[in-house]
Amino acid sequence: MLLETLLPMFALLGLATLLQTLSGFGFGLMVVSSFTLFGIMPLTATTFMVSFLSLFNSVSLVAKNHDQINARAFKILLISGIPFMAVGYALLEYLSLGMTTWLNLLLGCAILSCCGLLLIKRKRVQPSGHAYGFSIAGALGGLLGGLFSTFGPPVVFQCYRQTWPINEIRFTLLAVFSVTSLIRLAIVPFGTLPSIDVMISALCAVPIILIFTRVGRLLAARVSASSVRLLALTMLALSGFTLIVKNVTL
């Protein structure tokens, strides 16, 4: 892969990692939207990279804090989400063959919808611990996870509706994201395989993820969480809106 492609790719990955570390969400959405908008690599390759790199943000934390995971919610989210991941992945493969414009429009709409969900404040939403709430969130998350490697927003919305301790919410989400990233990687061989260049680039990006995760943790005590959240949502919304406008006017 050419240097002029690697440099912006690493810069965008570093920014996405930093914002996720500070805000707690958005790595997949940020990487998928920015890579697609700037034409860094095809969407099928980008989603592989997101699934691969996401593991370095979550697995170690989950292993150390597995006792804080809400087992019931974890099981329901996975059982309902995994079948829809396959549906989403099949849809990605179908749309990526000659229907790129429609795929980009769908991505833009998904980003704007996710921003809307993430804008809803926890205190304004009534808690709902019913199984069907988690099932719906898991199914929607699975569809987005299969399509764009972004399982998060519906699941984040549902978990933050609960009255659980914040660490229980956090580690339940991280556990779900760890497993879904592994599953997303496992189904890649059934579709478009990433090139050797993409796999090498993903490996080379691992130090970038680790470095910017560390930088984010150091900055967390000095930066307002609400300001970072607003910045992340603004960037996501602008990228989603730009994707829609760009593809509507083609």
Q: What does it look like?
A:
This protein is an all-alpha fold and 250 residues long. It has one domain. Helix content is 78%, strand content 0%. The chain has helices at residues 3-23, 27-37, 43-64, 71-95, 100-119, 131-148, 152-159, 166-186, 196-219, 225-248.
Succession of helices and strands: HHHHHHHHHH
Mean of all residue-level pLDDT scores? 86
Strand residue content: under 5%
Class from helix and strand fractions: mainly alpha
Q: How would you sum up the major sheet? A: none
Low-confidence stretches: none
Secondary structure: helix percent? over 70%
| C-alpha-based Rg, rounded | 17 Å
Q: Helical element count?
A: 10
Task: Spell out the blueprint of helices and strands.
Layout: H1 3-23, H2 27-37, H3 43-64, H4 71-95, H5 100-119, H6 131-148, H7 152-159, H8 166-186, H9 196-219, H10 225-248
Helix pairs in contact: 1-2, 1-9, 1-10, 2-3, 2-10, 3-8, 3-9, 4-6, 4-8, 5-7, 5-10, 6-7, 7-8
Q: Outline of this structure?
A:
The protein is built from ten helices and no strands.
What features would you highlight for this structure?
250 residues, mainly alpha, 10 helices, globular
